[in-house]
Amino acid sequence: MRHSVRAALLQEVNGPFVIDEVELESPRSNELLVRVTASGICHTDLTYRAGAGRFPLPAVLGHEGAGVVQSVGEGVTDFAPGDTVVLSYFSCRTCGTCESGHPAYCQHGPAGNVSGARPDGSFPMRWRGQPVRSSFFHQSSFATHVLAHRHNAVKVDAPVSPGLLAPLGCGFQTGAGAVLEAFRLQAGQQLAVFGAGAVGLAAIMAARVAGASTVIAVDLSAERLELARELGATDTFLATEADVTKTILKRTRGGVDFALECVGLPQVLRQAFDVTRPLGTCGLLGLPGRANTEVALPMMGLLAGRRLVGILEGDADPKTFIPRLVSLHAEGRFPLEKLSRPYAFEAINDAVHDMETRTAIKPVLLMDGGGSA
After folding, report:
1. If pLDDT is split at 50, 70 and 90, which confidence band does 3 have?
2. Residue pair 250/266 in contact by the 8 Å Cβ criterion
3. Helix (H) or strand (E) holding 164
4. What is the DSSP letter of 59?
């Protein structure tokens, strides 16, 4: 059985999203049919829109979905129709890295997340009789209905609006998880965040939750730095300031315990590394525009015990971490509403434009149209 639903199709690299009717399969074994109520737009979506995926188009992107389960496939016992869910990344839950507690690095992750297909190579959607890349992060949430896997769906019982829940699936999880899960930052430690977008600001909020003594934000926008201070930054610097690296080293008396690069640029990663103290850790979160992007680092800096780590999805397990963020929001300690801006689904191209021009920090599409996030 196939369902007629609406989806935002990308038909050419860097082209507009075109909303049209598509056919969606019924759920297979271990899958859920989800009515999407909201979907965040992430930098990763825009990077793949620009051709990073190198897969044939048309495609339906989107990987920060939230919605309501409509039906379940064979073998699904942990979800039922009517459940509110956040959709995150896919992991198999059985490989060595999954079983070691690091599902973000699942051995089957690339096939299940960024191929645009299910892990077995099939496609849930068809458009004008032809298959469409429509299992991006096993959801392709730029649509009114999607098929998700039970492993990348997270049940949420708390009364939180869909527009606030959706970005927890990737962007906010990535920033907050880097601090609370990958770094396990302790009270009194210092953090520097380069890039005050959705990921960086989520990291700053998490650092305040963890009790960091110093939280430094660096960005090109004075307005975003002002918001960073509101959310927990103790010090802010414009990225255009001369010798910003030296200034931070002086302010922190030799460097921070942890630094995060949230932009995806080699020169910014070098700055983040340079402000990390000996035995400190610099984390790379930003997705570069090209897969072969390289960075130069001083070997003596590495010999001094500094660590450079790449961090996917905050090294967090969505099944436990997303409910933790929901609880922090309920306590008033993770104010999601400060970062999200709602858009009607039909205004997806306006939302993309506002994100590209840095007018909006986290655009969120509301599938039922308008309203507040």
Report:
1. confident
2. no
3. helix 162-165
4. B
Average pLDDT over residues 92-117: 95
Residue 369 has pLDDT above 90, yes or no: no
Compute the distance between CA of residue 58 and CA of residue 18 in angstroms, rounded to an integer.
Answer: 10
pTM of the full predicted structure? 0.95
CA within 13 Å, CB half, 25: 19
Pair 118, 138: CB distance under 8 Å: yes
**What are phi and psi for residue 263, nearest 5 degrees?**
-115, -40
Q: Which helix (H) or strand (E) is 300 found in, with range? A: helix 299-303
CA angle 314, 317, 320 (to 5 degrees): 120
Domains and CATH numbers, the chain: 2-169+339-366 (3.90.180.10), 174-312 (3.40.50.720)
- Provide the pLDDT for residue 249: 97
Contacts of 288 (CB under 8 A, 6+ apart): 264, 265, 266
Radius of gyration over every alpha carbon of the chain, rounded to an integer in angstroms: 20
Confidence of residue 370 (pLDDT cuts 50, 70, 90): very low
